[in-house]
């Protein structure tokens, strides 16, 4: 696991290497998180918002929206401070998998691994192919996928 050192402004394309892995802080998912997400996304599926209905369902209780987990993973990665100032553009979310449900009270952590680094065709920026793995407090993988990012090169 790579330790993050220096201020966020210190990280540029040249500081990343294939195989680097960064572990984020943890965050506990609350009922308020799910209710708020349902409100602004308009996704009020009973599996997320109806405790009585969900109690009789597959998961026996309401679960977090899959996209809430993805959003939390992105937020946790931003808290690392290494992508904030060098980020130019998010390039896409690929092969994202929802492997296990995230329950109210689960505490999740994200590991971000740099799968590859390459310069853009014009050489003015860099591309990071990153794997995100979101795990719960038991170490179980709940979500995973790849998120590409274009980043700044170190100024001359």
UniProtKB/TrEMBL annotation:
Coiled coil regions in record: none
Origin: domain of life: Bacteria
Any one Pfam family match given in the protein's UniProt record, by short name: MaoC_dehydratas
Species in which this protein is naturally found: Calidifontibacter indicus
Protein name (record): Acyl dehydratase
Entries under Gene3D superfamilies matching the protein: Hotdog Thioesterase
Transmembrane regions listed in the UniProt entry: none
Recorded family membership: Belongs to the enoyl-CoA hydratase/isomerase family.
InterPro entries membership: HotDog_dom_sf, MaoC-like_dom, MCH/BMMD
Domain MaoC-like: residue ranges: 18-119
Signal peptide: none
Phylogenetic lineage: Bacteria, Bacillati, Actinomycetota, Actinomycetes, Micrococcales
